[in-house]
Amino acid sequence: MDYGLTEEQIMIRDLCRQIGEEKIKPVREHHDETGEFPWEIMKVFADADLTSVFIPVEYGGMGGSCMDTVIAVEELSKYCAGIALCLFATSLGAFPIILFGSEDQKKKYLPRLAKGQALAAFGLTEASAGSDAGGIKTTAVLDGNEYVLNGTKQWITNGGEAEVYTVIAMTNKAKGARGASAFVLEKGMPGFEFGKKENKMGIRASTTRELIFQDCRVPKENLIAKEGMGFIVAMKTLDNSRPGVAAQALGIATGALEAAVQYARERKQFDKSISGFQGIQFMLADMATKIEAARGLVYQAARQIDSGAKNFSKIAAMAKVFASDVAMSVTTDAVQIFGGYGYMKEYPVEKMMRDAKITQIYEGTNQIQREVIALNLIKEAAARKQ
Ligand code: COS
Fold first, then answer.
1. Are 55 and 64 in contact (CB under 8 A)?
2. Active-site residue identified among 221, 363, 371, 380
3. Burial level of 49, CB count in 10 A (0-12/13-18/19+)?
4. What CATH class is the domain 120-229?
5. Which atom of ligand 1 is nearest to the CA of 177?
6. 232-385, superfamily in CATH?
7. Is residue 386 over pLDDT 90?
8. Is 363 a catalytic residue?
């Protein structure tokens, strides 16, 4: 199928495919089993310049186009969504700086991320503030030329592995969401520690930890944008990053379909290949159709962002909700087609099914995505009537 990809995007896709086949496929089971962070693959990504895909050219990157990023995430996620996430969680951590950072902050942090010399992470979620992002309790109090941070962030992807952290904290609790501010922190700052590594169902190659701030003093110049802008920084970051989660889901689903087609051709029952049974054919047909529909939506969301559209919350949420639901249904069907073998760890589809689940949860649950879509629909209708 022709997706209208540019030469550069085809090059990115082919490069990711080669890395996936040669480097990721042989080690994905190991990282899934052990939860060991894939530093050796991070080096491969850096050498191949994939760490620069989501960074603007002015700061040493390939350009920061959402479509380029989506192509890379999709292809790598076909092989291992956990390993792909280790790379692309950096884009989530970098978005607050890319979108709202000062020139000094951009020059200081982005070239390092582009070269793969450091990973980044984004700290918003807390134990009692998940969907209700405005309910965060971590505080940042200005004391002279420094902000003093106290609180704990939970389930932070790349936590402990990353060097650069963008963190949302309350500078004025009384103002609710409008009292949140964004900061950039570095690993090693006194008062900044990490919790234990979480033991997860899927995406096990990627690390998830708490970020713990105990009187952590952060220079005033590390404030991103202005005080009170933190919630907007977080929402815009998520609008930009959700197509990446959608692409991850798309990659997982595509990987599962490819495995299921191959298996259906090889597996013989009742003296013929099971791909000859209509029951299996209908499943494969529905899986492939759902994937193409998801791909259309994900690419459309990415292109809309790249076109400079002002508000893309709705399409970003649509891409995320649809692609992740497709990934869950396609991977479940892939396991079904593999039958008993599908349930075994020797075959790749049970991992894909476990990996798919998180795409319906993180960067905003699919219930929250539907709320975002509906609120935008209602706002658009109201604006048309004015
Ligand atoms: N872009 C710009 N501004 C936005 C925005 C967006 N996408 N979404 C909300 N805002 C603004 C609103 O316009 C409002 O501004 P005013 O105070 O000037 O009116 C402000 O932010 C507060 O918005 P709202 O009242 O809608 O906030 P809520 O607390 O009701 O929360 C949801 C809205 C549920 C959409 C938000 O909390 C959310 O996205 N939650 C999920 C968080 C998430 O994805 N977590 C995953 C972990 S991070 S990896």
1. yes
2. 363
3. middle
4. mainly beta
5. 22
6. Butyryl-CoA Dehydrogenase, subunit A, domain 3 (1.20.140.10)
7. no
8. yes
Q: Is the CB of 177 under 6 A from ligand 1?
A: yes
Atom number, ligand 1, closest to the C-alpha of residue 375 = 26
**Hey, whose CA ends up nearest to atom 43 of ligand 1?**
364
Locate the ligand 1 atom nearest the alpha carbon of residue 124 and give its number.
Answer: 48
Taking only the tens place, the pLDDT of each residue in 154-191 is 999 999 999 999 999 999 999 999 999 999 999 999 99
Helix residue spans in the chain (DSSP H): 7-19, 28-34, 39-47, 66-79, 81-100, 103-114, 230-266, 278-306, 313-338, 349-359, 366-385
Task: Indicate the CATH number for domain 7-114.
Answer: 1.10.540.10
Say whether pLDDT at 279 is over 90: yes
Rounded average pLDDT over 260-288: 98
232 lines ligand 1 (CB under 6 A): yes
CA distance 241 to 205: 20
Report the predicted TM-score, pTM, of the whole model to 2 decimal places: 0.97
Domain range annotation of the chain? 7-114, 120-229, 232-385
- CB within 8 A of 348, min separation 6: which ones? 28, 255, 259
Whole-angstrom distance, CA of residue 182 vs CA of residue 177: 12
